[in-house]
């Protein structure tokens, strides 16, 4: 039976990388406990019969994929000067359903802010942070940290574009004591695809207005979101291959995680097997996994999966331990 330790007992041995799953977001906002974004939309009444028919025609429940394909078709129609028709209507219906769903499900900055003050010092312990979540919690925490301790956190984007030589950003900026690079292997609300087939990041000076700024860009139709939150592992892997940024994070970041890795709030589900497969390419020597409520069944399953991936040492710690994620330090 795996032993569940406290974060304080192991923290000095784990400083390289942090991988965050949905449990990290749920610790801040319970409404992030979605089975899927599509299911959240359905439960909140945003999947009208017309929208459901559109998803049925594509054969998936993936907002990002359906919206992207409709948007691309819309751009082709505009370029050919074809009169607007069903494609435009379908695009607007799916877009509006996604916007309404995100407004319902996402935590307000004012409600997340007390948690961010504990999250960013925890993140700052690591050289690399990878969040599998589409929400803005990691982004907000990093921006709060940069305000409080200098420009410590970097997401690899300069002037809204991802750097070719992102590894060079590991050097601390002047005035910062260190550097933590953070990435989104499954994309994020703040990332977009643009009309020129590029990929960029949406930013704002006021973090409290960031979600509104993102949704406004979607409403204007000048960009579509870049994130993957639905489907099987194979489907997610296919979506990753369709994005330059996601490909680079998957191939360059996940496979260079370093000697130690902390997993917080990630269930290691079959839907994310592609992440485990990529870790296997250059496995860390030791992994610490958060466990909620002394869940021995999960701990045993996680231990087996990680040992099979070539990791030499797997330890477990209580997800409610003081000092980890959003848990205050005594």
TrEMBL record:
**Matching InterPro entries:** DUF4917
- One matching Pfam family, short form? DUF4917
Q: What is this protein called?
A: DUF4917 domain-containing protein
- UniProt organism field: Metapseudomonas resinovorans NBRC 106553
């Amino acid at each position: 039976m795996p032993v569940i330790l406290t974060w304080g007992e192991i923290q000095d041995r784990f400083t390289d990388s942090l991988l965050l799953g949905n449990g990290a977001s749920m610790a801040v906002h319970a409404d992030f406990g979605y089975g899927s974004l599509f299911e959240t939309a359905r439960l909140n009444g945003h999947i009208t019969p017309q929208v459901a028919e559109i998803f049925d025609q594509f054969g998936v429940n993936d907002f990002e994929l359906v919206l992207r394909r409709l948007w691309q078709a819309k751009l082709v129609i505009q370029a050919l000067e074809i009169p607007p028709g069903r494609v435009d209507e379908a695009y607007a219906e799916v877009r509006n359903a996604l916007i309404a769903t995100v407004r319902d499900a996402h935590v307000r900055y004012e409600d997340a802010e007390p948690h961010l003050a504990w999250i960013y010092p925890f993140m700052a312990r690591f050289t690399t942070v990878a969040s599998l979540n589409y929400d803005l919690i990691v982004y907000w925490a990093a921006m709060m940290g940069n305000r409080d301790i200098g420009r410590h956190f970097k997401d690899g984007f300069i002037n809204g574009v991802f750097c070719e030589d992102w590894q060079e950003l590991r050097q601390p900026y002047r005035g910062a004591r260190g550097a933590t690079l953070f990435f989104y292997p499954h994309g994020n609300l703040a990332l977009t695809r643009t009309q020129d087939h590029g990929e960029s990041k949406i930013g704002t000076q006021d973090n409290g207005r960031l979600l509104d700024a993102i949704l406004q860009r979607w409403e204007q139709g000048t960009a579509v979101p870049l994130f993957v939150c639905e489907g099987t592992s194979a489907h997610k892997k296919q979506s990753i291959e369709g994005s330059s940024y996601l490909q680079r994070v998957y191939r360059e970041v996940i496979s260079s995680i370093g000697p130690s890795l902390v997993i917080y709030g990630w269930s290691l589900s079959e839907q994310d097997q592609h992440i485990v497969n990529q870790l296997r390419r250059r496995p860390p020597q030791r992994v610490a996994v958060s466990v909620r409520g002394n869940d021995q069944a999960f701990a045993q399953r996680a231990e087996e999966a990680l040992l099979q991936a070539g990791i030499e040492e797997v330890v477990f710690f209580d997800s409610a331990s003081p000092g980890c994620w959003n848990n205050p330090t005594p």
